[in-house]
TrEMBL record:
Protein name listed in UniProt: Transposase IS200-like domain-containing protein
Originating species: Daphnia magna
Coiled-coil region(s): none
SUPFAM superfamilies, per database record: Transposase IS200-like
InterPro entries: Transposase_17_sf (IPR036515)
Length: 221
């Protein structure tokens, strides 16, 4: 269920039909975001070989698409795990534009995944996932731990480090930056709109550090 960033849904002013109500997302909000593949199909399998002429990893596709739009929309990635049929993320929305970010990022990610695997149909379910607002250190820490432990909880690996796909670690909370080359899947190589290299950043934003007292305390929790 989509949750509003405030305590109650925004009410349309007089004369505006109820169906035209806009959803408001307040700046400075932590979210847990889940995005599932159509019919829970394994369309994000990390180690499935591509039989196409392009062979970027799913992690590369995720990192490039995320970095491509994160700075534009003021989104910071705190934790992530890309499973074979869904994505778990803990995000910080600095500007109140999480909906715009996810719409643009998910479209690019889906388009590149479709080309990588030669998929004829949609990658993700509609509507656009679930955004759960996280309030307080307990809620934030629990969702970070849930994302990192997801492959273990599913019985796929014995430890998070063994998961071959995109997954963040406790150490990433201290901040990490990765240079990611533009995938050849779907994206035109002579189009200057998408840079040849982007920087994928992950880590605890200063607002989270202030809540927990320190990144070390956050990591311990």
């Amino acid at each position: 269920m989509l949750r509003f960033a405030g305590n109650s849904p925004w009410h349309a002013p007089w004369g505006v039909a109820a169906m035209s109500k806009a959803k408001r997302y307040l700046p400075g909000t932590f979210y847990e975001v889940t995005r599932r593949c159509v019919e829970r199909a394994h369309k994000l399998t990390p180690n499935h070989p591509s039989n196409r002429k392009h062979s970027s990893s799913v992690a590369q596709l995720y990192q490039y698409a995320t970095a491509r739009y994160a700075e534009r929309y003021g989104i910071e990635v705190i934790a992530v795990c890309v499973m074979s049929n869904h994505i778990h993320e803990v995000l910080f929305d600095r500007s109140g534009k999480i909906s715009q970010f996810l719409q643009a990022r998910n479209k690019m990610l889906a388009d590149t995944v479709k080309v990588r695997y030669g998929l004829p149909s949609n990658v993700f379910d509609k509507p656009d996932g679930t955004y759960n607002r996280l309030e307080g250190t307990t809620a934030i820490a629990e969702k970070i731990a849930y994302a990192m432990a997801n492959p273990v909880e599913a019985g796929l690996v014995a430890s998070p480090e063994e998961w071959p796909g995109m997954i963040s670690s406790v150490e990433d909370l201290f901040g990490a930056t990765t240079d990611v080359a533009r995938p050849r899947e779907y994206l035109a190589q002579n189009n200057k709109t998408n840079a040849p290299t982007v920087k994928f950043r992950i880590g605890a934003p200063k607002e989270a550090v202030e809540l927990f007292g320190s990144v070390t305390e956050m990591a311990m929790q």
